[in-house]
Fold this protein.
Amino acid sequence: MSAFACSCALAQTTGFSIASMDKTADPCTNFYQYACGSWMKANPIPAEYSRWGRFNELSDRNQRILKDILETSSARTTRSAIEQKIGDYYQACMDEAGIEKAGTAPLKPFLDRITGIKEKKDVADVVGKMHREGIGAFFGLGAGADYNNSKMTIVHAAEGGLSLPDRDYYLKEDAKSADIRKKYEQHVQKMFVLLGYSEEKAGAAAKTVLAVETALAKPAADRVARRNPLSRNHPTDVMAFIGSAPSFNWIGYSRGLDLPRIQNLNVSNPDYFKAFDKTFADTSLDDIKTYLAWQALNANAAALPKRFEEENFDFFQRTLSGTREMRPRWKRCVSSVDGDLGEALGQKYVELAFGPDAKQRMAVMIANLEKALVQDINTLDWMTDETKARALGKLKAIQNKVGYPEKWRDYSKLQIKAGDYLGNSLRSNVFQRQHNLDKIGKAPDPKEWGMSPPTVNAYYSPMQNNINFPAGILQPPFFDVKIDDAVNYGGIGAVIGHEITHGFDDQGRRFDADGNLKDWWTAADGKAFEERASCIDKQYSDFVAVGDVKVNGKLTLGENTADNGGVRIALMALMDSLQGREVEKLDGFTPRQRFFLGFAQVWCEGMTDEESRRRALTDPHAPGRYRVNGTVSNMPEFWTAFGCTEGQPMVRGANACRVW
């Protein structure tokens, strides 16, 4: 039995519920309203959120479990090494009086380092140190699998150094974008004033920051272009890369970052680095130092006194997302510990919230979903046998990871001190950066996780060809060991199907069974795929996100393809598991109907207009209502289940889109 006694009542988590439905709505007109209408009415967006949905409900529940763990770890006199680290990190974050007393002194060494730069050639060393400490500037550089040899880890260099959510915030000329830039400049000025600058000096600094970041935004690839791995694969040798941006002292940067000697790397956007070279050469040293000071200040605002936190919240949350209030301090601190010590905290979470029964039932469901996709691929009328055989080979090679890592991360070399929140954050960043750089020249570890166990999410890794389901999402409403299979297949089953299908969406299909960027399709099959994917692109591009802003069908194509394919194979798996048995209705609904209701209720949500706009510009996922209605309107199985007829909104009929 765990030594922790959670007071958060695990059983109180709400899952699938008929009470969440709006039965006055017509399921064939607006299935999302039918499935979620009463839930949305009863769940207005809390003041501390810009989006409130079932993901948030579960995340909130998980955070309360983590809070109990952390408070216990903070208070104990006799603790394990893990309890010391997570407890002291949490205590330091919660010590608002200590943070106020320290003021900006913890940040001073970093600002002094920037102020002390005498010549441009010395900038690179400082940028390297900043990157090592988790502070972004100018570009991004780190270790990842080689697109052309997934069994080898190499260095990747990409665009970066922006503070606003996306390059388009700097470049779009509409009134709303111009207003956001104006408010961003005012925010930067306020932050510099809080740091001790005069109003005049802070105003000039803010203009400099916006000018430098705008120059960096112009050559950066947009989000749609960045989705195509073919456009991000530019292997080159180090000397050629240095020659493309000679104004920057790359040797000094490598020294500051403590980058091991390398001969080759991948440059995601070669044109960006050529443009960066000109920007760097044309920008004065004083302006560069101002930009770097802002990056250091902005990156660490959450660990500074309340006045900085509140101003940071006012712009990035209230202005950009429409959030009315800051989350309580304890929630922000739980998130910080999870972000920096995720597997240490995750060990304690798993003890409380994830048992072997859930893991076993997940294994069965995944096997059933994979079996369904085999059947789906074999019956496709648009794919040749040659490509089908390769697709089946890739599917067979997918590795499944459920719950938590087989081997936990070793944090013994990471020093966590009581009463040193900023220091703990920076040392954690250095620890994580070193962990990343240590991978260079080695084979990626397929057992390593990219999410912490309490995370309410899941993912597919195209270069490792594996699907990953943290324990955090394997809870109601996604997964409930106490409820019927129909609802579970609609909830977590659709999530499993979604992640598997990512291996065959417009991005995933470009990687082979070993995770290499390799075209394994015949030309005719590739063309047939593109035609079917184009249908989904056009369908979702007609959906309105908010006001005059529409969903970006190309940006969301991978997720929409995965939704459509995932729900279809999840339903196939459910029906196969029933083996033709007549199952009695529950709550008045057939298993097929409950499947679709279980799927829809996962996506019940509300969102501020500001957040809707931000996500439309940056999020590769469509809003929940379109993830539901967009998917079911393409499925004859849904039309039959609810007796929908041609001409109703949820029936696309001959215009229905289908890839998988």
About this structure: The first helix runs from residue 31 to 42. Confidence is low (pLDDT under 50) at residues 1-12. The first strand starts at residue 51 and ends at 53.
